[in-house]
Amino acid sequence: xxxxxxxxxxxxxxxxxxxxxxxxxxxxxxxxxxxxxxxxxxxxxxxxxxxxxxxxxxxxxxxxxxxxxxxxxxxxxxxxxx
Length: 82
Description:
Blueprint: E1 9-14, H1 24-28, E2 33-35, E3 41-43, E4 47-49, H2 52-60, E5 66-70, E6 76-78
Antiparallel strand pairs: 1-4, 1-5, 2-3, 5-6
């Protein structure tokens, strides 16, 4: 996957039915994700500017629980549509 588009806005969500609390997202983007008391990840802000660290966090998630879409049209950023 290439670098995020300049000026893009993203919608970031974590599918908590998939999240296993590995905290890889915190390792890559500690200011963009946090774990709750059940060790489930949450984005700090569901809408954010395109950000390489957020993309790296999504790519590093062992269960692909982080979903990123373009805020303007819902097009998949990660995981990419097949």
